[in-house]
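Example 293, ligand pyridoxal-5'-phosphate.
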Amino acid sequence: MQIAMIQDRMIPFNELEPAYLDRGLYFGDGVYEVLRSYNGRPFALDEHLDRFANSLTAIGIEGVDLARIRARVLQAFDASGLAHAKVYFHVTRGCGSRDFLGKGPQVPTFFLTVTELGDSSSEKARGIRVSTYPDLRWKRCDIKSLNLLPNVLARRDAAHKGCDEAILVNESGLITEGAASSFFAVFGRPTGAEGRKGYHLQTAPLTANILPSVTRLFLIRAGRNLGIPVLEEQFTPEQAAEAEELIMAVTTKDIVPIVQFDGHLIGDGTPGPITRRLAAEFSKATEVRGARA
Ligand SMILES: Cc1ncc(COP(=O)(O)O)c(C=O)c1O
């Protein structure tokens, strides 16, 4: 008799619920997305679906109807009635007995949750602390894959140090991104008559080593709208510690000022003026863009 055990409960293997045999669980063999709404309107759904399509293609999961996923996201979001919602969804390569290649035809599994977004206003008002951690991830971090163990370990280390996010540093000593966020620095101070010179916004370029973050995209646009030069070039933790301002960017919290980096105060230890301007410009995009717009 083939057996399965869940905690102390023993059941015949063939009576297991399919969810226990999902390849996402065994192998992390799937990809996911997280998007959010502002005031009842899903934000940047197209951008999230495009990235999701790229992730699916990159790992060779076929036969997923993206128009259907879009419809499911909107249907679940509407059903939730939540104004500030977080929508998580994933597709795995399917279910079956634990076999690396999988046996027989595989039907991708779709799973989605809509939950209430946590309030990040105090983090935004006070700023957060971050600490560095080695980037232990694989070489295709542009795929939003379910394999998140290095990210979990990095976050655990940060939490242990009393920090809110881990900033990942690669083997060359350069920052890639946050464990679950993108990462920006403001270097230099505004000078010149209009206060437009002498400083810039910097973040790592889009390569296979970082996730093409949707918030990153909108933050770069916000910078350009404000006439702030944006440089897509990696920098070191030592440079970050000396930056005028640092920013964490992620869908669920959008633009969050960082006021401490590996124990160094950033600026005067309070959120800086350029981050505030960027956050205000970013929020304009969230006001005008809805999924159905
Ligand atoms: C590794 C990593 N980088 C960046 C981000 C930010 O991406 P987005 O702005 O699309 O939420 C995330 C989000 O979870 C992430 O996990």
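Summary: The chain has a mean pLDDT of 96.
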